[in-house]
Amino acid sequence: MYAVEMRHITKRFPGVLANDDITFSVLKGEIHALLGENGAGKTTLMNILYGLYKQDSGDIYLNGQKVDITEPNDAIRLGIGMIHQHFMLIPPFTVAENVVLGIEPEKNLLLDREKAIKDVEEISQKYGLIVDPKAKIQDVSVGIGQRVEILKALYRGAEILILDEPTAVLTPQEVEELFKIMRSLKEEGKTIIFITHKLKEPMATCNRITVLRKGTLVGTVDTGKTDISQLAKMMVGREVIMEVEKPPHQPGEPVMTVKELEAYNDLGIKALRGVNLILRKGEILGIAGVEGNGQLELVETLTGLRKASAGKILIHGEEMTNHSARNIIEAGVSHIPEDRRKRGLILDFSLAENLILGSHFKAPFSHGFQMDYDSVYDYAGDLVDAFDIRTTGIHSQVKYLSGGNMQKVIVARELGREPDIIIASQPTRGLDVGAIEYIHQKILEMRNGNKAVLLVSADLDEILSLADRIAVIYEGKIVGERDPRTVTEEELGLLMAGGSA
Amino acid sequence: MKKNNYHRVIQLLKRESVADVFISFVAVVAALLVGAVIVYISGSSPYEAYKALYEGAFGSTYDFCQTLTRTTPLIFTGLTVAFAFRCGLFNIGGEGQLYIGGMTAAIVGISFTGLPLYIHLPLAVAAGAAAGGAWALVPSVLKARVGAHEVITTIMMNYIGILLCSYLANYPFKAEGWIAQTNVVEPSAQLPRLVASTQLSAAIFLALACVVLTYYILYKTTLGYEIRAVGLNPDAAEYGGISVQKSIVLALVISGMLAGLGGAGEVLGLHKRFIFGFSPGYGFDGIAVAVLGRNHPVGVVLGALLFGALRNGGMVMKQMTNVPTDLVVAIQGIVILFVAAPEMFRIFRRIKKGGIKNAF
Amino acid sequence: MLSSIVSLLTATLRISPPIALASIGGAYSERTGIINIGLEGMILMGAFAGVATTHFVGNPWVGVLSAVLAGGALGLLHAVLCIRFKANQVVSGVGVNILSLGLTTLLLQVIWGNRGASDSVRGLRPLSLPVIRDIPIIGDILGEQNPLVYLMLVIVVVAWLVMFRTPLGLRIRAVGEHPEAADTVGIHVHRIQYMCVTLSGMLSGLGGAYLSLGWLNLFSQNMSAGRGFIALAANIFGKWNPAGAFGASLLFSFTDALQIKLQGVGIPIQFIQMIPYILTILVLASAVKRAVPPAAIGKHYEKGEK
């Protein structure tokens, strides 16, 4: 008996066909993976099931009955719950408030806080998802946040749970715990749909796997009857090179030294508690760690975007702690930021204007007071050719580019400056395989050309394949350095979770 | 190079600017229609009202010069708002900066005797600009350092500035008589009359020079690049090494200087003295001008001309048809609302496609 | 000395409703993420509508009702522009102010001719509370005030209760902090935004009615005189909390009362009149460091947009 059937679902957004006539079914009581690259249409399909979007055409059947889902309330009432990739939690509210939001218990017209807390405690005990109902979301860890999201769905009586890329923010150990929870939920009779772009995960937990590619359904397979390379082929449509080729490296002299670096985050909490690092020429140093352990603050402090409260940063032997972003750029440091739309690009500026950001005030682009836009346009044209950026022209606005091309603009700009040090933060997040391959290639080129690269990534596979050395960051400190050729994922996972090995 | 320029123009046109101009045009037409309805409801004939309006604005050389006279301060205040907006800032303090600039120009104009024109006049004009800039300094620093919303601080500075000028015009610098005004400014500090028997003065040249200057700063200088970058995405600008604080302060101060110049223009060119109440809200009109002109220097000139025509024509309209001049103010408000709501025009397109029921 | 202070406090309370009501309205609007710069215009429109209606109908309470509706209409306009048409919220607010100024002045002249102020109309007569007025000190302050002052006090309490103790308030705050999260649990984000922005208009309109009907019994051009903007500052100072906004409004009203008392002291009147405005700037310069607005403020929410 199919718990969920989505028949001939089509959904269009301006400029992109996100779901193209997809027919997708899930058996009751199974864990079913929805696998595909970034941008394949998995989240869109599930958003339709959950009522956040309305399909342009196609029908949904639950347990054989046709249903009409126009808003999340409908989905919730039909027993569907969704745990989103980016948490849908309100940071200043408590756990209990977040769980009951929308169906709050009332007493005499007022919010019944005690009952909310009691209900959360009950349900938390029942499913073994331990949380503190009175804690504020902004104070709890990401792992707890995820539990709250699951509790939200269970509180509303969900029988079908959709998990959207749940492991992106977890350590390997937490991922194991999540899989355990998923199995026990399955034993309670729940049906689970598990969205992911990571090949290994469905093999570990799911009964069946459906692969999406560029908005269409490629096929559905039983886990027992397939393997990773077949899945990869289905996902991408061609043979995928699983391993990156890397010549052995000879690390040169240190170009950046970080000593006992301390800094606070935006909430006023200490995010860096004494970081020590040495970055050498011709080497990729990978910073592994679960997001939220200080990576953002580390990158921002190193690039002059955040004040260091203590410690030293030395670039080419010179003290550059708390120097301005401009000085640091001038010292030969380039930065590929983790949020390309927020930090990396000015979306309403043209390609050309974006390509000179950071060097705009110097010759040849500017002479004193005045800009020389002719040389700007020449330079931009050269970069577009050199980096193969697909665009309608250097004068068109960057906001019309695809995610991959946007990232190429940033990479072109940052590498075109011929820096000595490149700091790359989550450089391939949200990109399709072609763009990922391209950026990995460029990073390796830099390293082979005797430059230094600091690679910060939440994707362990990326770090393991690219880095020459791996440093693990946990709660604002570097807790261990390892050689990627000899370290195991378990060891890294342990370090990422604060354990010692 | 030629090929580059051709492509550049094509791509620039494809950008939203063409749609912007269209929206502004339609907004004005729509606002005039609404205005006509208001006139009709209040008992007068819209045809008569608008006819008087047009004739008052453009009917003769004299009328046209008067329209240009009314347009001049609007160019200044329109540039004020537009320039600040390019940095993502809302300078609603144009009125206060205008007053302070005008008062300062007047003080310099009356305080020195025996100076030649080519020293006294530039001095007075520069003083007006500097004073206007200084009046924007406090809000700019508060915004840059502490994030205080400049809408509120600049509006507060308006009240403080106007009250200060009221004091100055009523006590220390008061001329003989009942009116709150200063003495007439020395001839060596006056902007010469351009057309005999009209009020049009060289202030309009000053205004047009500011248009060119503003365009130059925004689109040809490094400072302009940085200001626009901060206005569009302060996070990315900071990442690109731009000092966001410096840009905010410079943008607001330059913006204030433009308003100060407007005040100087009115005082030294039109009235030849500071008269309290000389501005019927030019600072606020500047907002409508900037919004209508899409915050572009050329757009500001066109918008200022439109509102200058409305103002001047409005006075004639009042004399001939009894429709109050505040109709113009109401129309301005409506224009802003129409322009501010770009989505509105997609509705018209949808109605064209599928009938009224498709509208929402 | 004591009697001076008591009379100052009484005056403070008497002056407070326009700013207080508008700032509470501002709190509700901004808590759902919509900046409302148009409070000034909504107060003014309410003031005008109150007097104009009373002029024709004769009953000031009908005038109050029409003021609330007029303010609400402007609030709804702002809401439609910002939510449905994705207008820049600050520009829309400024547009509302200009429109209101133009419309009220225009209609003022149409009805009463070119004089800058309307005729006097019947105003709301002060209420004298029987038991309370006999309590020493408090009785002097609270015992005899305009009925709208008492209404305001009730509104402050209700506004606070709703926002922090009811499910509706939880949802309102959720919308302003994280509209996407609210949407995913089935809360109608836009509906709540429409409601609260219109409410802010209604409350401001009520404040405007007090200004014209409760105090001066007439309407004069631009009589709101910046109170809507002071209300914005009061809301920020009060940290988007109706009770805090009320407290901040009292502070501003106090300086206003003080300013009136100080006139004639010997310093030119203009400097004394500056005091409330200077205070506002000082407040913004200091408070803003600690005040954190709702996280999603100023942003437009649409499903599927990143």
Give the total of domains of chain B.
1
**Beta-strand percentage of chain B?**
under 5%
Give the CATH level 1 class of chain B.
Mainly Alpha
Query: What's the CATH architecture name of chain C?
Result: Orthogonal Bundle
Low-confidence stretches of chain B: 355-360
Integer count of domains of chain C: 1
For the record, give the distance between the C-alpha atoms at the N and C termini of chain C, rounded to a whole number: 61 Å
Question: Shape of chain B from CA axes?
Answer: globular
- In round numbers, the mean pLDDT of chain B is 87
Any key phrases for this structure?
heterotrimer; A: 501 residues; alpha/beta; six-stranded mixed beta sheet; 17 helices; 33% helix; C: 306 residues; mainly alpha; ABC transporter involved in vitamin B12 uptake, BtuC; two-stranded antiparallel sheet; 13 helices; 71% helix; globular
Question: How would you explain this protein's 3D organization?
Answer:
The complex is a heterotrimer of chains A (501), B (360) and C (306). Chain A has 501 residues and is of the alpha/beta class. Chain A is 33% helix and 27% strand. A six-stranded mixed β-sheet of chain A has the order 6-9-10-3-11-12, with helices on both faces. Chain A has a six-stranded mixed β-sheet with strand order 18-21-22-15-23-24, with helices on both faces. In chain A, helix 13 (373-387) crosses helix 14 (403-416). Chain B has a single domain (45-322), classed as ABC transporter involved in vitamin B12 uptake, BtuC (Orthogonal Bundle). With 360 residues, chain B is an all-alpha fold. Chain C is mainly α and 306 residues long. Chain C is built from 13 helices and two strands. Chain C has helices spanning 2-15, 17-31, 39-57, 60-84, 89-112, 138-142, 147-165, 167-177, 179-184, 189-216, 227-237, 242-262, 269-287, and strands at residues 127-128, 144-145. Chain C has a two-stranded antiparallel sheet. The mean pLDDT of chain C is 88. The chains are: A alpha/beta (501), B mainly alpha (360), C mainly alpha (306). Chains B and C meet through helix 6, helix 7, helix 12 and helix 14 of B and helix 4, helix 5, helix 11 and helix 13 of C.
Fold blueprint:
The complex is a heterotrimer of chains A (501), B (360) and C (306).
Chain A: E1 2-13, E2 16-27, E3 31-35, H1 42-49, E4 57-62, E5 65-67, H2 72-77, E6 80-83, H3 95-100, E7 106-107, E8 110-111, H4 113-127, H5 142-155, E9 160-164, H6 172-187, E10 191-196, H7 200-205, E11 208-213, E12 216-222, H8 228-236, E13 254-264, E14 270-280, E15 283-288, H9 295-302, E16 310-315, E17 318-319, H10 325-330, E18 333-336, H11 340-344, H12 351-355, E19 366-367, E20 370-371, H13 373-387, H14 403-416, E21 421-425, H15 433-448, E22 452-457, H16 460-466, E23 469-474, E24 477-482, H17 489-496
Parallel strand pairs in A: 3-10, 3-11, 6-9, 9-10, 15-22, 15-23, 18-21, 21-22
Antiparallel strand pairs in A: 1-2, 1-4, 4-5, 7-8, 11-12, 13-14, 13-16, 16-17, 19-20, 23-24
Chain B: H1 2-14, H2 17-41, H3 46-58, H4 61-86, H5 94-111, H6 117-146, H7 150-170, H8 203-220, H9 222-232, H10 234-239, H11 244-271, H12 282-292, H13 297-321, H14 326-340, H15 343-354
Helix pairs in contact in B: 2-3, 2-14, 3-4, 3-13, 4-8, 4-11, 4-12, 4-13, 5-6, 5-7, 5-11, 5-12, 6-7, 6-11, 8-9, 8-11, 8-13, 9-11, 12-13, 12-14, 13-14
Chain C: H1 2-15, H2 17-31, H3 39-57, H4 60-84, H5 89-112, E1 127-128, H6 138-142, E2 144-145, H7 147-165, H8 167-177, H9 179-184, H10 189-216, H11 227-237, H12 242-262, H13 269-287
Antiparallel strand pairs in C: 1-2
Helix pairs in contact in C: 1-12, 2-7, 2-10, 2-11, 2-12, 3-4, 3-5, 3-10, 3-11, 4-5, 4-10, 7-8, 11-12, 11-13, 12-13
